[in-house]
Structures are given as C-alpha cells and as structure tokens.
Write a structure and sequence with these properties.
The chain is α+β, with helices and mostly antiparallel strands. It is 41% helix and 21% strand. The protein has two domains: 214 residues, Ribosomal Protein S5, domain 2 (2-Layer Sandwich); 174 residues, Alpha-Beta Plaits. The chain is built from twelve helices and twelve strands. The strands form two sheets. Strands 1, 2, 3, 4, 5, 6, 7 and 12 form an eight-stranded mixed β-sheet that branches. A four-stranded antiparallel β-sheet has the order 9-10-8-11. α2 crosses α4. The longest helix has 26 residues. The N and C termini lie close together (5 Å). Bound molecules: adenosine-5'-diphosphate and magnesium ion. Belongs to the GHMP kinase family. GalK subfamily.
C-alpha cells in the first residue's frame, strides 16, 4: 500500500471503522462562494462563483462480497450509516443527509438506464462511501454541492461512466432537486466541478457555457473575507421557492421563457405590467445579470480593484428588491464597507448564511475586529470570519489506495 497523507489516513481509519474494509480511493470536491450573480441561475442568467479551499473528501470501496448490490453511506457528520439496495434507490426512499450522496448514486443510475438500458443499470456494483468535509454547513458555502460533486466523481470513476465535469455538475443538481427536494440551480455544482486557482467560473445558465475568469487577487494582494452570520437558512422550505415562483410568474406575464430574455431597457414595460412586488423581484434578476457581465468585463480589462461598486450594488438589490437579506447580513456588509472594503455583499441564497468582502490583505485584522464589535453591540450571535482562496474544482481521478 502506498503511504497516505494524514487526511487520507484519517479518512481510511474512519472508513474502516464504519464499513469494515480499507477504501479503494479518495475523491474530493470544494464548496463555493458566489462572487456575484444571485438567484440568476434558475432564471437562465449569469453567475460568477469560485471554488474555495474547503472540501468534501469521500472514501469509497466496492460493497462487501456478501451484499454486492448494496449502497452504504456514512459521514463524520452523523453516527448513522444508511444502507439501501441499489435497485431500491429512488427519491422517495431517501431522506436527510444521505439523500445527497445516495441521490447522486440514483441520478447516475438513472443516467445509465437512459443511455445503456436497464440491464446495465442492474449490473452496477454496490459500494460503501464515507464523507469527511470541512465545508461548514448552512453557511452559504454549499456544503451540499461539495458532497454531491465528491460523490459524483467517485462513482463516475468506480462505475467507469466517463462523464465529463459539466455532466457531473448536472447529476449533482438532479440529486439536489429531485432526491433532496431543493429547487436550486446549477451554479453550486458547476463551481465545485469547474473551479481553478485564483479564478472564478463565469457560467451562462442558458447555454451552459462555462468560462474561467482570472480574478488576479494574489497580484493585487487582495483577499475575500467571508462573514458567516450563523443565521441558518433552509432552501428546501424557505423563501427560496417563493422567489423562484415570483420569477417564473414575471416571465410568464411578460411572455418570455425566462427573465434572461429581458434587459434593463425592458424595466419600464415590466413596471406597467407587474404588481410592485413581482416587478422588484424581476428587477433584481435583470439588473443582476447585467452586473455579472460588467464584473467579468472589468476583471478582464481593469482587474479586481474595479469591481467594488458592482458588489455593493448587488447587495442593495438583494436587500431592497429581492428581499432575501437579514439584518445580520446588512450589518456585516455595512461594517465592511465603512472599514474600507473594496466591495461587499451577501452571498448565497439568502435568509441567513454569509456575506463576502473584497479587501486589501493588511485591512483584515481591523475589519474583523470592527465586525465582531458591531455584532456584539447589536446583541447578535458572534459571526464566524474566515478568508477563502479561489481554488481548484473536484478531482476527476481519485487518489487510489493500492
Ligand atoms: P449549504 O449552503 O451548506 O449547501 P444546504 O442546506 O444546501 O446548505 O446543505 C446542507 C446539508 O447538506 C446538511 O443539512 C446535510 O444534510 C448535508 N451535508 C452537508 N455536509 C455534510 C457532511 N459532511 N456529511 C453529510 N451530510 C452533509
Ligand atoms: Mg446547498
């Protein structure tokens, strides 16, 4: 056996304690932070997320010889080991955290059925999979996509499916939409699959074209500070689905397939046709699409110091038009801006989670102190502050333990 890094050694021991054998390999996928482009993905618009230096790692091995068609999943996050016959994998059969990895197994098995037939699906071997993630849960950093993508790359290699990164992102989204029941777009999985060091993923959610956009943070000595308010959110039941419905209503009312078809020039027409609330929801999405395109253009022509005003404007739009911010997020953004951040905004689906601030590296200690002080003064829960590095996406080939 080759020598393992300390993390893989820990994971191998965790795997063995739960599944009774050594894992065959290790695969990983990161969480993500969305630089700009919020609630635009399911409106066929633009997003600009980046993969971060916090990852879900999975260890996987073939099923035990006495139960060859079993899917078995575990996580350091839970004491529970969930097992199910591969043939019984179905959205209705899945619940709680295991719906993420088993939902991915189900979506891949469905893909095999659709492309190679039910015989091929029946021939898929069982597996045991263990998850170890340092992506914080519910902080808006997409711990869910990290797990989905790590499970997807692991099973893609174990089942020899040969799917490409963008296809695996789609598998992760299908798992999240249908097995978990959260109506989220493809942004999180795309960032997790396609990220590069010091770059963001510019994704057109209509054409599905993805492009790597260098951020140039290192060269300018900039950092992205995340302020996790620790106000929790729940996309499956919260206002997320409601916002999505408003966007669909606005598009239908305007006779277009999605809000992507409309531009800022159309806003006066929308205002005449839509009720005030639906109009403001649509205005957020339409103006946000434009801000993402402008951000990409500015990154390419002038670099990261030029994008601050767009980040700030994005926050105002989410706070006032889309109404998905909370007082803790607004405070984090305000304090960051007052403390000299280049730009700041809430990030992620909203109703809690994190804000990000683009800052000069030497500013960080003073800014962190100011945020903590402001939260204490308001009697809010102590936020969690950390820097994220734009990082590489999922490992397509596992580190095999042979
Ligand atoms: P996030 O913004 O972090 O993606 P979600 O609500 O979308 O928040 O996903 C969080 C859920 O993902 C958790 O409630 C849990 O079910 C699952 N999850 C996250 N991390 C792990 C983990 N390490 N092991 C098992 N399940 C996890
Ligand atoms: Mg999520």
């Amino acid at each position: 056996m080759t020598e393992l890094s300390p993390l893989f050694e820990t994971l191998a021991a965790e795997f063995e304690a739960r599944h009774g054998s050594r894992p065959a390999g290790f695969w990983s996928a990161p969480g993500r932070v969305n630089l700009i482009g919020e609630h635009t993905d399911y409106n066929e618009g633009f997003v600009l997320p980046f993969a971060i230096d916090r990852r879900a790692v999975v260890a996987l091995a073939g099923a035990a010889p006495d139960a060859p068609a079993l899917a078995r999943v575990s996580s350091t996050f839970s004491d529970q080991i969930v097992e199910l016959a591969l043939a019984d994998l179905a959205p209705d059969a899945l619940a709680d955290w295991s719906a993420y990895p088993l939902g991915v197994a189900w979506a891949l098995a469905e893909h095999v059925s659709a492309t190679s037939g039910t015989e091929a699906r029946r021939a898929l071997p069982g597996f045991a999979l263990h998850i170890h993630s340092d992506v914080p849960i519910g902080a808006g950093l997409s711990s869910s996509a990290a797990i989905e993508c790590a499970a997807a790359v692991a099973l893609n290699e174990f089942w020899q499916l040969g799917l490409a990164p963008a296809e695996l992102a789609r598998i992760g989204q299908i798992a999240e939409n249908q097995a978990v029941g959260a109506p989220t777009g493809i942004m999180d999985q795309s960032a997790s699959m396609l990220g590069h060091t010091d770059a963001a993923v510019f994704l057109d959610c209509r054409s599905m074209n993805a492009e790597s956009v260098p951020l140039g943070l290192y060269a300018e000595d900039l950092e992205i500070l995340v302020i996790d308010t620790r106000v929790s959110h729940d996309h499956a039941t919260g206002g997320y689905a409601e916002r999505r419905a408003s966007c669909e209503r606005a598009a239908a009312e305007m006779g277009v397939k999605s809000l992507r078809e409309l531009s800022v020039a159309d806003l006066p027409r929308l205002q005449q046709r839509l009720d005030d609330e639906t109009f403001r929801r649509a205005r957020h999405v339409i103006s946000e699409n434009e801000r993402v395109e402008q951000t990409v253009r500015l990154l390419e022509t002038e670099g990261p110091l030029a994008i601050g005003a767009l980040l700030d404007a994005s926050h105002v739009s989410m706070r006032d038009d889309f109404e998905i911010s909370v007082p803790e997020l607004d405070l984090a953004v305000e304090v960051a801006q007052e403390g000299g951040a280049i730009g700041a905004r809430m990030t992620g689906g909203g109703f809690g989670g994190s804000a990000l601030a683009l800052i000069r590296r030497p500013q960080r200690p003073a800014l962190e102190a100011a945020v903590l002080e402001a939260f204490t003064a308001r009697g809010y829960r102590r936020p969690d502050l950390f820097v994220v590095q734009p990082s590489a996406g999922a490992t397509m080939k596992g580190h095999l333990d042979d």
